[in-house]
Amino acid sequence: EVIDWCIRERMIASERKCRVCDKNMDLVCKKRVNDGYMWRCRGRPNEREHDVSISVRNGSWFEGSRMSICDILLITYYWFNRLPIKYILKNVKVTKETVVEWMRFCREVCMDICMNENNAIGGMNAIVEIYECKLGKRKYHRRRTIDGRWVFGGVERGTNRMFFRVVENRGKDTLLAIIKSSILPGTTIISDCWKTYDCLEDEEYRQLTVNHSLQFKDPESGAHTNNIVRTWSAIKRQMSTNPRRGQLDGYLAEYMWRSAHPDKFREFLTAIKRIYNPDDVPLQS
């Protein structure tokens, strides 16, 4: 029984208070509603007469959708396991637009979690590689022109910790502000030989550079940015299409979340419950 499972997993509320009498409502069978159940409270003797009903989806991941709870869980599970849209459409009888929308909802969960867990990376004896990349679609017949947005990011060596920011401009002040909020002082930062980064040692960082126009590894210091370059390649592979404006943050957050929580669907459900907590819904007046 899907409802029982959702209650056990706290995907939907295990109890509800009546907004009229403040007593626990009853979970009753209701064949006319989509889920077959709803919360209900009827006025009892010596009480104010009332008949209050609340959807079992109230405040949950499932609220506001006409799809069955089972289908929503299936799409969430298929998205987590990177199954293609064609596969999902064969197994869940919904439109392509609905699948795309729910995949976007899943990425928004990743965004919320990444924002709440926005801890700076690096520190003493740590190395962080930073790099910039324009993510988007290469224009037809124009090899060196990419239609997309600039993203600035960093990867800490030896861990899965990273950060990414979509930037509207690549000016010194913008990138330095991101570095100071995302990388701890004392970190050794490896970057491209670009003038914007020349001030890093003045900001309590140690800087090593690589000139990518000449080589991919500095012969004297051994500095390289292979890790961050591989990460950019993985992100590009994940985005099979050119994301619409405003959706790139979601793809980046998805990559960050997956890197920190590989192959653990239950952890993603926990993330959903942190954002869509049905127990946090106040009584309606």
TrEMBL record:
<dbReference type="Pfam" id="PF12762">
    <property type="entry name" value="DDE_Tnp_IS1595"/>
</dbReference>
<feature type="domain" description="ISXO2-like transposase">
    <location>
        <begin position="120"/>
        <end position="260"/>
    </location>
</feature>
<dbReference type="InterPro" id="IPR024445">
    <property type="entry name" value="Tnp_ISXO2-like"/>
</dbReference>
<protein>
    <submittedName>
        <fullName>Putative isxo2-like transposase domain protein</fullName>
    </submittedName>
</protein>
<dbReference type="InterPro" id="IPR053164">
    <property type="entry name" value="IS1016-like_transposase"/>
</dbReference>
